[in-house]
Every structure is written in structure tokens, then in C-alpha cells.
Design a protein that fits this description.
This protein is α/β, with parallel strands linked by helices. It has twelve helices and 15 strands. Among the domains are: 73 residues, OB fold (Dihydrolipoamide Acetyltransferase, E2P) (Beta Barrel); 149 residues, P-loop containing nucleotide triphosphate hydrolases (Rossmann fold); 55 residues, Ribonucleotide Reductase Protein R1, domain 1 (Orthogonal Bundle), CATH 1.10.40.
């Protein structure tokens, strides 16, 4: 009958097998397959068979199995799992001395451009990283710090993506709403987010601006609002009425015109010495502003559609996020314009905490779990009716709330 020692031994063996199986999955050993070695078993005497160290509970392993197991175990020791702030395990091999530190400047499908000591490398990702499951749609994002190995001049392999300080990310499929969980990282390791909107062509969209502000706050990022195309303002009082609620909430608002150059100097001073991501709707003039700030870049721009189904809507001129260094120090990340920005892992009960004008009235509602939509005795709704809170900001809150999971 098996003893307790036998059970403990079996459990240890099972645990060891699980670790090795996991290591094989993440790090398939690229061992050269060799023919099984031939052994003349007739050369052993009967005594040698009896005393050859074989036990009843020991398996006879195929040729090469012991070497494969040792190699896999060695790889398992080398590879560590890093858990980021969102609880997502990311493959993190130990740093090798020959791996060079760099920063991701641009990302395409399973490839990226990495700046290493002033040199630009066109890099692929090591195979084990491609097989690793992730909650993100890409292995790296612009701004990521990485370790690379150079294969030949101008070509390398990303060996490791270092843990991020922060990131700006959105749901990969905003239309999936409450059921989607994968995220697309727009940029990583940044200092501030410049939320660019345009006054007209396309019209300023408060809900999208608010979504960016919420995403920035959740990652402890400074957010600044830039309203571009003020050369199209016909009624100055309407402009002031629109932007004042953001100023009242504590946000800095900069008014610019890429056409006339208005506000560009103020914007240039704001960006100097910081890593800033330009984010916003398509066609608001992000690339045009960047060209004004750094004229030598000569980025491609298009005019907003004047007719047909694209009338007054922006068109994509930037197709992928790219980092550009600034003469005054720091860098700017130009991103493709989007029309939807889904907020990942945010629940309805948390949303109000990202509206500063709401948090100032905390505790004033009759119900502790008030959603500020239909409940009686709601202090927030009363503040909207009394003009203490902007109806525009409240409407934005309600629209965003409808797309979030309840708990």
C-alpha cells in the first residue's frame, strides 16, 4: 500500500512536470534532433541488470530526454513572469549584457522601429514573445523602453519590453462595450496628454474629450485641452461658454490655430522638456499643429471633407503612432485620429469620481450608490438644474455611463 512518503513524492513530481510543461509552452527548446543512440544490451551480465540502479517506480526515458529536460528547466529559470499594475502577466526575460537599451519610436504589425544610441533599428520580436498571450493588441507601444539585440546593421530583435511607468490605452473594440477586454495601447511612458479638439470642421465633441480626460486621470497623467481652428470662430461668446466648464473643473485649455499660428508659442512652451502624446478626433489638426511646432517635419495633412458623407468629418492622415523629438527638449507622439474611445475596466460606480465638479458635491445625494441619473434627492442633478454644473458635462457623463458595466 502506498505510504505518505509515496504520495508526497508523487505530488512533487506532478508539480515539477507542470512547471516544465509551462516552460516548454513559453520557451520551446530549439534542440537539434539526433538519432537515438544504439546500445548493445547483450553486453550486460545478469548481475549488472539486477544491480544497474533500476527501480520499480522509475521510468526508462527515451534517448535525449534527460538533456531536453535539463535544457527546458534552465530556460524556465531564465524566464520570469512580470505582473503589471493591471494584474496582467508579461513575459520578462532577465537582462543580458549584450542586449542594448532602446525606445520604441514606431510600431507596425509584429515589427517596430527602435532608437538605440541615436541609431534607428528595424526590429522584429523574439518568437517566445509572439506566442505569449496578452491583454493588449500589440507587444509594444510607442514610448516603450526595450532591450534589443542587433542582428546586422540597422536590423534587430526585441528581446524584452520593460515594465511601463504608465500608458494611455483604449478598448480594442469600443463597439463591443461591456464585453470587450483587450486594449490597444496608444502610447507608453509619457508625461502628459494633449487632448486636441477643433472648434469647427469637425465640431468639438465634448464626450470624446471627456473620455480622454478620464483615461489620462486613471493613469495619473497630466491632461491639457487644446481647442484648435479658432480662426473658424464666428461667435466668441459661444466658444467661451463651451470651454469655461473645463476651466472651472481645473483643466488647462489652450486655444490655437494651425492656420494662423495663434497660440502655437504657448503650446510649444508647454511641450518643451516633456514627452507628450497628441490625441483626438480625426481631422482636428494634430499633424498641422505639430508641423507648426517643428516646421522641419513636413507631415502630411489633408483638408476636411466639404461634401458628401464625409462632410465636416476628419480624414486619417496619420496611420500609426510615431514619436518625434523636439528641439526644445522632450518628444511628441503623433497618433492616428479616432472616432471612438472605449474605457477599459471602468465601472459605472467609478465614473463620477473622474468629474471634479461632481466630487466637490460628494455626500450630498440621498442614496450612497446614486448614479446621478434617475434617483430622487440627487445633489448632482440639482446642481445641474441650478447652473452649478455644466449641462454639457452632465450629458457627456450620462452617455459614457450607459456604455459601462454596472459592477
Amino acid at each position: 500500500m502506498p505510504t505518505e512518503h509515496d504520495y508526497l513524492k508523487a505530488m512533487e513530481k506532478h508539480t515539477r512536470k507542470q512547471k516544465l510543461r509551462k516552460a516548454r509552452k513559453n520557451n520551446p527548446a530549439n534542440l537539434k534532433k539526433e538519432k537515438p543512440r544504439q546500445r548493445d544490451w547483450s553486453a550486460y551480465s545478469d548481475d549488472e541488470w539486477d544491480d544497474g540502479g533500476f527501480y520499480q517506480d522509475e521510468r526508462v526515458m527515451p534517448p535525449g530526454s534527460e538533456e531536453l529536460r535539463k535544457e527546458t528547466a534552465k530556460a524556465a529559470e531564465k524566464v520570469q513572469l512580470h505582473e503589471d499594475e493591471d494584474g496582467i502577466n508579461q513575459l520578462e526575460p532577465e537582462i543580458e549584457e549584450e542586449h542594448l537599451p532602446g525606445v520604441v519610436i514606431e510600431v507596425a504589425a509584429n515589427r517596430c522601429k527602435v532608437q538605440v544610441d541615436g541609431e534607428m533599428l528595424d526590429c522584429s520580436f523574439r518568437r517566445a514573445m509572439l506566442k505569449h498571450e496578452s491583454a493588449f493588441t500589440t507587444l509594444a507601444a510607442v514610448g516603450d523602453e526595450v532591450r534589443v539585440s542587433e542582428i546586422e546593421s540597422g536590423v534587430g530583435v526585441v528581446e524584452q519590453v520593460l515594465p511601463r511607468r504608465n500608458m494611455l490605452a483604449r478598448l480594442h473594440r469600443p463597439d463591443a462595450g461591456k464585453t470587450s477586454s483587450r486594449r490597444r495601447v496608444i502610447a507608453a511612458n509619457i508625461d502628459q496628454v494633449l487632448v486636441v479638439a477643433s472648434w469647427r470642421k469637425p465640431n468639438i465633441w465634448p464626450e470624446l474629450v471627456d473620455r480622454y480626460l478620464i483615461a489620462a486621470a486613471r493613469n495619473d497623467l497630466e491632461a491639457v485641452i487644446c481647442v484648435n481652428k479658432i480662426d473658424l470662430v464666428a461667435d466668441q461668446s459661444e466658444l467661451e461658454e463651451t470651454i469655461q466648464p473645463y476651466r472651472d473643473a481645473g483643466y488647462q485649455v489652450i486655444l490655437t490655430s494651425a492656420e494662423t499660428g495663434a497660440g502655437v508659442d504657448t503650446l510649444r512652451d508647454l511641450l518643451a522638456g516633456s514627452i507628450t502624446v497628441f490625441a483626438g478626433l480625426s481631422g482636428v489638426g494634430k499633424s498641422s499643429l505639430l508641423s507648426r511646432i517643428e516646421p522641419g517635419l513636413k507631415l502630411r495633412t489633408l483638408t476636411v471633407g466639404e461634401r458628401g458623407k464625409n462632410r465636416n468629418q476628419g480624414r486619417h492622415t496619420t496611420t500609426m503612432a510615431t514619436m518625434y523629438p523636439l528641439k526644445e527638449g522632450g518628444a511628441l507622439i503623433d497618433t492616428p485620429g479616432i472616432r471612438e474611445f472605449g474605457l477599459a475596466f471602468l465601472h459605472q460606480a467609478e465614473l463620477a469620481s473622474f468629474y471634479p465638479e461632481f466630487t466637490r458635491l460628494n455626500g450630498g445625494c440621498e442614496y450612497a450608490d446614486c448614479t446621478h441619473t434617475h434617483e430622487p434627492g440627487c445633489r448632482i442633478k440639482a446642481a445641474v438644474a441650478q447652473g452649478e454644473i455644466s449641462p454639457m458635462r452632465y450629458e457627456s457623463y450620462v452617455k459614457i455611463l450607459e456604455g459601462l458595466p454596472g459592477k
